[in-house]
């Protein structure tokens, strides 16, 4: 059985949870045992517990995002030690690219990343396909010994050696072709984005309370298509909103944001619709369509964009 260590920031905890679910079959087959800091028992020393598990892990998953790279703890402590163990052949480090960011120049930038081609999980039209791709790669890595001699290349690159032994022909880097997206792709992307926005708002309200004790947050998931979020100061509601999946007729075609916490209003102040280019799906604001800065929003970008609207009355 291989022990797996998750190195991640708590901002990305919802994505880590989804990945862990997709690794459930490997766990049920007795191939892996996964650990992350939410497994720390109350009363334990946090730093000692993390360090102990990091030293014992056979496979270390770096859940990469801009927040991961910005985190001193994740980047300077966990990642640095993980790469030392990888270089010594004591463990296998696998970068898992969760969200788009500049990561190729990092110490792990030369390792083979997952999903395929290092394409960020949040950029896949169907996120389940991205996590399935990751799970398959981890299955292949399980059971392959990480230890190697100093003269060998890292184990994660060794599999490519036979192909590299042949003379490589010159080729173009212009190999992209237009991707055709189906209605199922668009609907799946939209519902996944809405669920991410809901989790983002719930987590952000909790973080706001922890950082600023004078504020209290209230999150309510009305149903699968609507939630409300409220911020209170001194018991008085100072910012409220309702976010829903809406559109014409019965088909949800956009994510709608409305000021106020009413769960029944049909009005809205902003709407994010699904758009696409030749390679990806994204969300586009309808009320600020002329703003180049907001032309293409990922799931996390959309969540930040709508959260800023809720925070605006507090920050002005």
TrEMBL record:
InterPro entries xref list: TIR_dom, Toll_tir_struct_dom_sf
SMART domains: TIR
UniProt xrefs under Pfam families: TIR_2
Sequence ranges assigned to domain TIR in this UniProt record: 1-142
Protein name: TIR domain-containing protein
Organism: Paraburkholderia tropica
């Amino acid at each position: 059985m291989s022990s797996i260590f998750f190195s991640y920031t708590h901002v990305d905890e919802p994505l880590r949870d989804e990945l862990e679910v997709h690794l459930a079959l490997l766990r049920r087959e007795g191939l892996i045992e996964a650990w992350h800091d939410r497994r720390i028992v109350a009363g334990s020393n946090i730093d000692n517990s993390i360090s102990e598990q990091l030293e014992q892990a056979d496979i270390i998953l770096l859940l990469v995002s801009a927040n991961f790279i910005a985190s001193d703890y994740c980047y300077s402590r966990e990642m640095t030690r993980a790469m030392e163990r990888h270089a010594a052949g004591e463990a296998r480090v696998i970068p898992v690219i969760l969200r788009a960011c500049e990561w190729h120049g990092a110490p792990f930038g030369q390792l083979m990343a997952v999903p395929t081609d290092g394409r960020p999980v949040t950029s896949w039209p169907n996120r389940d396909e991205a996590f399935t791709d990751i799970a398959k790669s981890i299955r292949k890595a399980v059971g392959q010994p990480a230890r190697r001699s100093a003269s060998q290349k890292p184990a994660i690159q060794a599999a490519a050696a036979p192909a590299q032994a042949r003379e490589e022909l010159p080729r173009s880097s212009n190999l992209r072709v237009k991707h055709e997206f189906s209605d199922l792709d668009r609907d799946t992307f939209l519902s996944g984005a809405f669920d991410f926005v809901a989790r983002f708002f719930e987590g952000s309200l909790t973080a706001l309370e922890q950082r600023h004790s004078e504020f209290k947050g209230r999150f309510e998931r009305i149903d699968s298509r609507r939630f409300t979020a409220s911020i209170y100061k001194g018991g008085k509601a100072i910012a409220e909103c309702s976010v829903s999946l809406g559109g014409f007729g019965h088909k949800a075609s956009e994510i709608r944001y409305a000021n106020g916490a009413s769960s029944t209003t049909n009005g809205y102040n902003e709407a994010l619709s699904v758009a696409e280019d030749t390679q990806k799906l994204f969300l586009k604001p309808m009320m600020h369509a002329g703003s180049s800065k907001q032309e293409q929003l990922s799931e996390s970008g959309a969540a930040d964009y709508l959260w800023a609207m809720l925070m605006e009355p507090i920050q002005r």
